[in-house]
Every structure is written in structure tokens, then in C-alpha cells.
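tl;dr need the bound structure. longer version: we got a ligand (1-deoxynojirimycin) that a collaborator sent over and nobodys looked at where it sits. i said id run it. heres the input, straight from their email, havent touched it
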Amino acid sequence: MISTSFSALLAGLVTARYASATSVSDFVTQEQAIALQGVFNNIGANGSLAPGAASGLVIASPSTANPNYYYTWTRDSALTLRMLVDELIFGNSSVQSTIDDYVSAQALLQTVSNPSGSFLPSGLGLGEPKFNVNGTRFDGAWGRPQRDGPALRAIALIEYSNWLLAKGQKDKVSKTLWPIISNDISYVGQYWNSTGFDLWEEVSGSSFFTTQNHYKSLVVASQLAAKIGQNCTSCAEAANALCFLQTYWNGKYFTANINLNNNKQRSGIDANTMLGAISVFDVAASCTHPSLQPCHSRSLASFKVFVDAFRNATLYPINANIAASKGVALGRYPEDIYYNGNPWYLITQGAAEFLYDAVAQWKHQGSISVDSTSLAFFKDLYPSAKAGDKYTQSKTSHKKERSMSQVSARAASDTFQTVVTAATTYADSFVAVAQKYTPSNGSLSEQFHKVSGKPLSAYDLTWSFASFVTMARRRAGHYPAYSWANETVNVPAVCTASSTKGVYAAAGAGSGGCTSSVLFVVNATTYYGENIYLVGNTTDLGAWDLASAQPLSANNYTSTRPEWFVEVQMTGGEYVKYAYVREENCGQASIYETVNRTLHVPACDSSSASSTSAQLATNDKWTGSVGSSGSC
Ligand code: NOJ
Ligand code: NOJ
């Protein structure tokens, strides 16, 4: 009996139509379970939709064509893992083994040489956005490096570490987690001020989402380091990153991307800034905290500008005739042309999460302050709002007022409740939009069509599912308990563009012996998308295995001198055979040089294991045939 009705219930769950007949609350309950399962389906080695994915690696989507998202992205994975760590904190202990698999996988992935660079000596490979699902490097042309990845991964691992510490597992944190975190934080401290590609992998410059996560990662790393007695030299860059973060404000909203390398003209209105605020959310932080929380006036102003950009029936026909007080379907940025530009589930759901976060912060503080910056946002919720208003949460509303001042305090507290209720209703109306366009089986793609509302682009997108779960948790009033931004912080009066040289060491490997640094330089004329690697007979040169070869950089490449180079830490005194290899852009066979090169690595002095400049440089010229683009 029981099992029959239970399976009937399950069947109902799977076939439920998310029509408007289902309440938002019922929809959220049903979809939350489907979304969490959807995430597990996309994680190796046992995920049902992730064949071939290594243990602990998260695929972006099972879609292998149009688009092919069958890769593991550092950003998507870290955001997904943050959701899983939250689930662990909320008491779902069954997720822990998956988190541990992720930890082991990332320790290894950090060391994989790739087109962004190698791991040693300076961490460049950590900026690589995506890898093949078996953990090997991806050689195709791509918008790289993307510098948010290491910060997001560090935050995920730090949130897990804090949970472990609370359970008394300091040893595991110090020995297993910290070495991985330390590499990522070294990267952030070294490159936070260098340009890179934004989270949408399109523009190269400085990106708000990236900088905001850089700041958070440096702060939470220094807090963790203090708890476990470790040094975090790179963490000192936090104040500089925080100062830089403020500079994205243009007087009306946070410009998503600045310092652009290739001058693409855009408004800078972008989900980037809303997603950043969600990422740094701390329910106990003040609304004026310079980490720029969801309830910060400037975050609220940016949110309104962003949402209003999509209240445009020409841009998104499905948003026609929706009142200004109601949620609309939201995309990445108004100028988006990817798949002709459409709304995204994770962004529409993200808007709801942003509002639930702000509401939680107002309630935590017991007040809401309106200023001229946030006024337009508040007017949508409460038309008579004025700059300078402060609404305070009632503590005495059920008692009898005895004086006029208590009566007016009561009025202000009613207003507090009015605004909170309006903001919550507004948040729910974004969920209702997602509900309307979620298909009956609960699958969440990347996008839904701006005219028909039909799911579009990659199906079962892990990030769409993860964002649903975090939104549902915030809606239910569940926040990560660990508070990080509740201290008073001063933004430096003058911003300093500095960098701290990182210390990188393979986590979990423990390499001994002393090394000498060799700079390999080769002149090789290449076409756009083609890469050069170095491979040789020793382990530091990949033992003739291309998957472990060293990637060369084209940073010094000019038409008159087509230079490729890489600096490699090599075992002192060894004799090596090596060759350069061309990696083609569309999976054509790699092209090896037709010469056998040899080299004697200089002996090293073990007392100065960390020499900073190369002790030997080669001056090679490509010998062998050249490649041509596969035009894929
Ligand atoms: C793939 C990227 O992942 C996506 O963000 C981008 O919009 C398209 N390429 C087009 O550049
Ligand atoms: C394209 C998105 O723009 C990017 O943010 C994401 O990392 C990849 N797709 C994979 O989901």
C-alpha cells in the first residue's frame, strides 16, 4: 500500500506540469529535489549523465553537441560545490563523499599543464577555464585565462574547511585542504590585478564578479589560515582588491567589465554584478560593508538598472506587458548575441536569490535605509519611499503604544514589514517566471527562448540546477552559518596596483629534491589557435607523454620574432632529450619536430631551492613541418 502510493507520488513528481496551477512554493519543493539529483547526475565517476568523467569532476552539461559542454569548468564546478557544502552544513551528510572526491580531483587538476600555462613555477595554469572530463587539458582556442576560477574554488574549499574545523577535523584541513587552497590563493594574490576573460568567457579586461570573488577569497583564506596556524602572505592583497572593487561604480551602477583589452562597446549592465553580490553574501554583514553585499545601496541600484534593461518587449518578447513591480525573464546582458541572446534560468533564479538575500539582511539588522542611490529600487516596492527614510523592524507592535513617538515608530515598523513583504513577493515573481518556462520533467537548460519560452542551448546545465537549489534555500531562510564580512573594514584612500609572488606546490604529492630553472625558447611561426608544447624523456618534461607536456607562452610573439617560451623547474644536473610539438586547433594530429634535442640541466644548490631567474636559456628554432587550421 505504502509503496504504491509512494511511487504514485514520485511519478506525479516527475510528470508534474509546472503550470500556473502549481503554487510557487510547491514548484520550489518539487524542483529543488529534481535539481539536486540533476547535479549528482553530472558528477563523475558515478553520475548517470557523466560517462567518462573522472571521480569528483563536475561536467557543465551532458550536452556533447550544439553546444558541446561536455567539459569540466573550474567556475561552474566551484559554484556547484559551494551549493553541496551548504547542503552538508544544512545536515545532508550524504553529500560529503562527493565533496571529498572533488577535493582529490582538484589537487591533481591544479598541476595539469594547459594552454594558460603550467602550474610551476608561477601558477599560470590555475587560470585555465576548462578541462576535458577525464582531467586532461583542453587544447582548443578559448577565452583564457579566466581568473575567477581559483578564487571560487578556494572559497568552496574554505567553506568546507570551516565545517570540518567545527567537527574537530583540523588535521584534514591542514594536510589535505590547505595545500590546495594555498595554491589558489597564491594565484589570486599574484594575478588579481592582471586582466583576463570575464565569467561569460567573452571580454578580456577586469571584471566585477572576478574582483569581488578575489576579495572574498583573500579574506576568508586569511581567516582560515589564522585558525589553523598557517601563513597567508598573498592574503595581504585583500585591501588592494577591495579598493579596486569600488572603482567599477560609474555613478549609476557597477560597470561589469572595465580596462577592456579589445574595446568592445557595451553598456556594462550585466548579471555579472548581481551574481557577484550573491557569491559574497553574508547575512550578518552590514549594508554599507565595502564587500558590496546584496543590500548595499549600490548593489540595489545596479540590480534595478539590470532588471529594467530586460523590461523591453523588443529585446525579449516574452517580457511584454509585465508590470514594473513584477519579475521578468533575465539574460546575461542586453547586448548578448550568444544563441541570439535569450534569458537564462540561473540568472532569472539568481534575481530571486539576490532579493531573498537582501531581505534576510534587513531582517537581521532590523532596519532598512533608503538613500538617493537606492531610492529608485525602493520606489518599485514602496512608491512613497524617500531618500533618507529609515524603516525599523517592530519589537513592540503587539503592545499598546503610549505616546505619539511610539505611534510614529509603529508606522515606520509597519513600513519595514511592507517593504519586506513587497521584496519577498517580488523575489517570488522571478521564481514564477522560471516556473513558467521549466519543462514538465524539471530539466533546466542554460537558456529559454526569448519568444517561445522553450528551453534552449545546453540541457541539464549543472549551474542552472545548483542555482535553483541555492535560491530555494535562501527562500526558505537557510543561510550558510559562517559569517565572514561582519567586521568593519576600511577601504584604502588610494588604490595600489600590486602583486604578491605566489608559492606553488603540488598538493598531496610532496616533491623533494632541488631544481634548476631552465627557460626554453623556440621560434615557431604559428596560426591563431595553434599551440606549442615541450615534451621530453624526463618526468619534468612529461616523459614523452603529450598529456603531461609543458605548454609554451606566446606572450612575446611578434611577426618579426615568433617566440614561444616556457620556464621549467628541472631536476638539477640531469641530462634530457626534448622536442617541441605543435598542438592543432581542431583535433588534427599533433606535429612533432623532426630533430632530437639534448640539454644538460645546470646543477642546483639545494640551499636556494627557490631561485627566481632561469639558470639556462635555450635559443631554438622550430625544425619540422608546419600545421594548418582545421577551421572547426
Ligand atoms: C562559449 C562561451 O561559453 C559563451 O559564454 C560565449 O558566449 C560563447 N562561447 C560565444 O563567445
Ligand atoms: C558559458 C557561460 O558563459 C560560462 O559562464 C560557463 O562557464 C560555461 N558556459 C559552462 O557552463
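gonna send this back to them w/ a short note. The chain has two domains: 4-109+146-475, 515-621.
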